[in-house]
Amino acid sequence: ELQVDELQRLLAGMEKEHRSLLLKMKEGEAELARLRSVEGDKLAQQDRSAQLEKEVAMLREKIHHLDDMLKSQQRKVRQMIEQLQNSKTVIQAKDAVIQELKERVAYLEAENLEMHDRIEHLIEKQVSRGGHSSRARSKSEYVSSKRLTGPKPLPLIRVVET
Questions:
Q1: How far apart are CA 142 and CA 91, in angstroms?
Q2: Residues near 104 by Cβ (< 8 Å), separated by ≥ 6?
Q3: Cα(89)–Cα(92) distance, integer angstroms
Q4: Dihedral angle at the C-alpha atoms of 12, 15, 21, 22, nearest 10 degrees?
Q5: pLDDT tens digits, one per residue of 94-130
């Protein structure tokens, strides 16, 4: 009986040790799972970190490319502005020349009209004085001496350069 009691006590001790070992095993497995998840997290973080580094490098390259394109476009805009300013200067110079030519044309037209009036006056004097003249001409022969109807001529303006 003593042996049986001893065996039962040993058996009870073994069961108790079995339970404590199972508990320790479960705690160990839980710790191992936690460590694996931490390592997995570290690996996932390392993978994510590597991926983010690649993205950052790609974005830096894109930014560099866009900066180059922006500088190129700014150069083109500056060149276009310079061309526009040069064109404006040329146009202003040509406008000044055109205005000067218009003034000269107006002056010459006024002189031309004055000459036509003088010629008509002289022809009328000649016709009235020398009606018997062998070279008497009628006004119809002087078609060019008549004023043309059209836009009203500008007044006589004399430009004096100083």
A1: 42
A2: 159
A3: 5
A4: -150
A5: 999 999 999 999 999 999 999 999 999 999 999 888 7
Residue in the structure block whose two tokens are 């700014």: 74
- pLDDT at position 159 is 56
pTM: 0.42
Give the integer Cα–Cα distance in Å for 128 and 121.
11
Amino acid at 156: L
Distances (CA, A) of 154 to 105, 106, 112: 9, 6, 12
Give the residue among 143, 52, 152, 64 at the shortest CA–CA distance from 110.
152
Greatest Cα-to-Cα distance within the chain, rounded to the nearest angstrom:
187
For residue 75, the tally of other CB atoms under 10 A from its CB is: 10
